[in-house]
User: Fold this.
Amino acid sequence: MNGMSEKIVVYSPGRANLIGEHTDYNDGYVLPFAIKRYVKIEIEPSKSFRVFSEQTKKGIAFEHFNRTDSWADYVIGIIVKLKERGYDVKPFNMRINSDLPMGAGLSSSAALEVGVGYAICQMMGYDISMEELANIAHSCEVEFVGVRCGIMDQYTVALSKENNALFIDTMTKEYKYVPLNLENVRIYLIDSGVKHELGNSEYNKRRKECEDVLNAMGQKSFRNVSIEDVERISDEILRKRALHVITENTRVLKTLSALETDNFRLVGKYLYESHYSLRDNYEVSCPEIDFIIGELEKSSNVYGARIVGAGFGGCVIVLANSEFEKVIYEISKKYDMKYNIELKVIDVETSDGVHRIE
Ligand code: GLA
Assistant:
C-alpha cells in the first residue's frame, strides 16, 4: 500500500460480444470486446462510506456491509469480496455516473463492479492484477448479488484493449488479444428497447439444463463432448441446448480464422448462424429481436447480425458497411410501426478496459 490518494476518476467500459454466447459457463470460448460507453466512478477518502448515483440522484450511506437489494449491492459486494481476500477498505465518498444503457445486454453491472473495485484499489494504493480484479468482481456478482453468470463480462471490462477483441478460453481462463481491423467494416449495436431480466429464471434454467445434459452423458465438461455424443441424447430440449454449446464453440474458432484475413463477410455468416442457434436451439431470443434480424438479413450491406448477451431482449450486434445508416432508417420505421418502440443505434468503437483518467 502506497498511502491513500486524493480524488480519483475511473472509466469502466461496457462490453459487446462478437461471438460465443452462453458458452462462458460451459467451459467454452468467447470473443468479446469493450466499447466506448462507460460507467464513470469518482472516489475520494472520507470519514464514512457514501455512494451517490448521478443518474437516479440518490445516495446511500452505510456502515455495515449487508445486502440492500438495490444498485448499491454492486459497491457493497465489492468491498465484501476485497476484504475476504485480505484487502482492507477504508471509508470513501463515491459518485457514479454512466452513459452505458442499463439492462441492454451491454454488461452495465460488470462495468460497475470492476470499476468500483479498480477505484477502491487505486485509492488504497493496491497493485492488484486485472485478472484478480475480474475474479473479485465475478465473485461479487455470483455470491453477493446472486446472479450465476460466467466470467466473460468481468474479464472483458477489466482486460480489454482498444482495437482488439478478447479471445477467452473460459475453461482455463487463458486469453489472447485478437486485432479487429475495422477499416472496411463497421460494428453497430441496435438496442431493441426490450429489457431483459438477467437475474430471471430463464438464465439459471439454461445453466441447469446444461448441467443436466452433462450428467446425462456422464461428462464433466462440454470440451470432451462431440456432435455424435449430442445426437444420441434422447431428450429434445437437452439435445438442443448441447447442440448450441458445441456448435457455438466451433463458430468462435472459425471466426478467429476468418478475422486473420479480415474476411468480414464470413464472420457475418457465423454471426447469423450463431443467432439461429440461439433462437432455435438455446431459445433465448424474442420476437422483437427476430424481427430486427429478419429485416437486416434482407440487405446486402449487412454482413451478419445476432442477439448479444443473456438474451430475451437487449441488443443486436451488426457487422455492416457504411451504407448501414440508410438500412437502419427503414428498419426503424417498420419497428416503430409494429412495436411502437424507437430503435437506438450505437456506432461502436472499441475501448481499453477499466482505466483511470488523470
Ligand atoms: C450474460 C452473462 C455472461 C454470459 C452471457 C451469455 O451477459 O453475464 O456471463 O453468460 O450472458 O453469453
